[in-house]
């Protein structure tokens, strides 16, 4: 099954769920010293879980730029 990111009414496909998990696991292992959400808490916890709260959007953008 394909997973993706939905923004308003637009949906951007990412790939299969195992690819999605592998992508986040790679970030955890290579960028966060094997501590899920340590450096990128909004992206790794909220986005991975399915939704970023409106009040955290600016923080999420900063994390993505980093």
Explained architecture:
The structure is a single chain. The protein is 50% helix and 20% strand. It has helices spanning 17-31, 41-49, 57-65; strands spanning 2-7, 10-16. It contains 3 helices and 2 strands; from the N terminus they run ββααα. By secondary structure, it is α+β, with helices and mostly antiparallel strands.
Structural class: alpha+beta
Rg from alpha-carbon coordinates: 12 Å
Mean pLDDT: 93
* Largest sheet data: 2 strands, antiparallel
Biggest sheet, spatial arrangement of strands: 1-2
In helices, the fraction of residues equals 40-55%
| Count of separate DSSP helical elements | 3
Uncertain parts: none
Gap from first CA to last CA: 30 Å
As a percent range, the share of strand residues is 15-25%
Q: What does the overall shape look like?
A: flat
Series of H and E elements: EEHHH
> How many β-strand stretches?
2
What oligomeric state is this?
single chain
């Amino acid at each position: 099954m394909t997973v993706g990111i939905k923004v308003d009414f637009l949906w951007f496909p990412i790939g299969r769920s195992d690819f999605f998990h592998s992508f986040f696991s790679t970030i955890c292992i290579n960028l966060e010293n094997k501590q899920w959400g340590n450096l990128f808490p909004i992206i790794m916890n909220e986005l991975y879980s399915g939704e970023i709260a409106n009040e955290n959007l600016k923080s999420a953008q900063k994390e993505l730029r980093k």
